[in-house]
Amino acid sequence: MTEALLSVRDLKVHFPIGKGLLAGAKGVVKAVDGISFDLKPGETLGIVGESGCGKSTLGRAILRLAKPTDGTVVWLGRDFYALNKASLRKARRELQIIFQDPLASLDPRMTVGAIIARPLKTFHPELTRVQIDARVKEAMAQVGLAPEMMRRYPHEFSGGQCQRIGIARAMILRPKLIVCDEPVSALDVSIQAQIINLLRKLQRELGLSLLFISHNLSVVRHISHRVMVLYLGKVMELSERDAFYANPMHPYSKALISAIPLPDPKAERARERVMLQGDLPSPLNPPKGCRFCTRCPMATDLCHSTEPPLSPRSDGRLVACHLV
Amino acid sequence: MPSTRTSAEVAVRQAAAAILSARNLTVDFKLEHGWVRAVDGVSFEVRRGEVLGIVGESGSGKSQILMAAMGLTAINGRCTGSVTFEGQEILNASPEQLDKIRGSAMSMIFQDPMTSLNPYMRVVDQLTEVLVAHQGKSKAEAVDNAVEMLERVRIPDARRRISLYPHEFSGGMRQRVMIAMALLCRPALLFADEPTTALDVTVQAQILDLLNGLVRELNAAVVIVTHDLGVIARLCDRVIVLYGGRIMEEAAIDDLFEAPRHPYSQGLLAATPRLDDDTAHDLRTIKGSPRALVGQMTGCPFAPRCDRKIERCTVETPALQRLMSGRAAACHLVTS
Lengths: 324, 336
Known about the structure:
The structure holds 2 protein chains of 2 kinds. In chain A, helix 6 links the parallel strand 7 (about 175-180) and strand 8 (about 210-215). Chain A has a single domain (about 5-95, about 175-320), classed as Rossmann fold. In chain A, helix 5 runs parallel beside helix 6. By secondary structure, chain A is of the alpha/beta class. Chain A is built from 11 helices and 12 strands. The model of chain A has no long low-confidence stretch (mean pLDDT about 90). Helix content of chain A is about 35%, strand content about 20%. Chain A has helices at about 55-60, 85-90, 110-125, 130-140, 160-170, 190-205, 215-225, 240-245, 250-260, 265-270, 300-305, and strands at about 5-15, 25-40, 45-50, 70-75, 80, 95-100, 175-180, 210-215, 225-230, 235-240, 310, 320. In chain A, about 45% of the residues are buried. In chain A, the strands form 2 sheets. An 8-stranded mixed β-sheet of chain A has the order 6-7-8-3-9-10-12-11, sandwiched between helices. Chain A has a 4-stranded antiparallel β-sheet with strand order 2-1-4-5. Chain B is of the alpha/beta class. Chain B folds into 2 domains: about 5-105 and about 185-330, P-loop containing nucleotide triphosphate hydrolases (Rossmann fold, 3-Layer(aba) Sandwich); about 115-185, no CATH class. In chain B, helix 6 (about 140-150) crosses helix 8 and helix 8 packs parallel to helix 9 (about 200-220). Chain B starts with 6 loop residues before the first helix and ends in a 7-residue tail after the last strand. The chains are: A alpha/beta, B alpha/beta. Chains A and B meet through helix 5, helix 6, helix 7, helix 9 and helix 10 of A and helix 8, helix 9, helix 10, helix 11 and helix 12 of B.
């Protein structure tokens, strides 16, 4: 087995909320509550879940953009949270991020060339202008932008092109890992497909690893090798992609997949749906026992009292459920 | 009420009188640099008991069709053509006439329930306002009706929760309140603009189910606008594919999804990731980006992105031509 690029162990990110003048914190939102996984070089892990499940916070905590409460992140054999400032800076070249809102994540007053060159100038001040220019053009070509566009500003570009600029900016440092936080959810269907194909190509050709965070399971299926399902800060299921979509094991995974409206009216009518009742419980006050027990169609007394561990099944996947 | 999804069933229904009918509807907006055309000569009809989907990408004009049909076009907009509701013209109706129709016979579900509900008003007051104003009901009677409707959209403990403010509901619950509000007057015609786009997928499934059951039961005519082909497949009987303000294709949904005729419909379907397609290959894409709003253009609006474009496509705008079995397509390359 290849050595892991990234090892996350029992990661927790808790946010205290509602600090009053007299009282202490009114409560704690456990956005990420004990998540562990490994990521191999060249692997894409899809992280899925509904709003409030902690998927974005997880991505940010891995990059040290959100402050972890507990747990470790090991990057290439070194404790990422223990790195001093200089080593962290060095390591950060290898970890990049792409954001959801393509236009909002680009400085409107900088030219596209300057935006893409910025990480390079920051991390490699020794490079000459000519060298930087060459690297910017290379990154633009990689993502399918014409080099002539260097001198234009973000507002002159469409959403899909802005997302390409964001990807070029992430790519220019030749990173080993890119955290993609809902990179296609703001895009039209025809553009979404272009960006998915682009990420697949970069991943394949450069051996990149991706953490692909998305609420859209059909999109995740097209880009991931493995899929991790989160619910209220916990992993419900972690599985190889094909096994997961062919046979989701956790009742929440089943419900998620069966809730997606298929672009196929006949299949839609023939479908048997696992319909969940109610909404997501408040993350301030998650249910006791299994977090999913309040909405689970199969929940028993055990589920309401004891939290199921994330345990391995015969095909190697991990599932946190008493009943499967 | 059974749904009508095949061409034969649609044909039977077409014989009934339309409740809403748009004829050559065009919507222009005056911007700083001149007029832009958002909707360009769109014609369609909807009948009672029928759910019509309008699908398109951003800037296709799909929402503006609904706004025009509700008489809600923004102040810098200008509508031409005709939209009639039960024979009455909407485009030149007075505010009083519109008020009367909108309150009782026609209603709309918006995308974002938080910005469409009044945050300063308790839900009970927002729901009963219409019943008291338009149907002359007493407040107590209106409250009973409202509670009943909230129960119908499965809001638990409705009698108590009706006195809460919108922010005290979750996103899914707020969207249920919106649906209850839209259905309270038992409208003959319901518009829904991306009604589930802001919701999580498991909540979306609940809301789609609910909406489907309620509109079939009311036997209302429904026009639903969305970018999501899955939502269309789930809810609609007939679908219009819109691009650049024009209708590219119109068909019963089974026909469209089985054999799209227009290159844009074909591209849109192929670009949509599915749960059962092949993941070894790349998704099919449509080159370029959706058309930015510009002035009037000649030729097919989709021509700049079309793989099958011929010279004629850039000089002559294809008319929407009727094909067999109630279908229509606007493409020089599609012949009946």
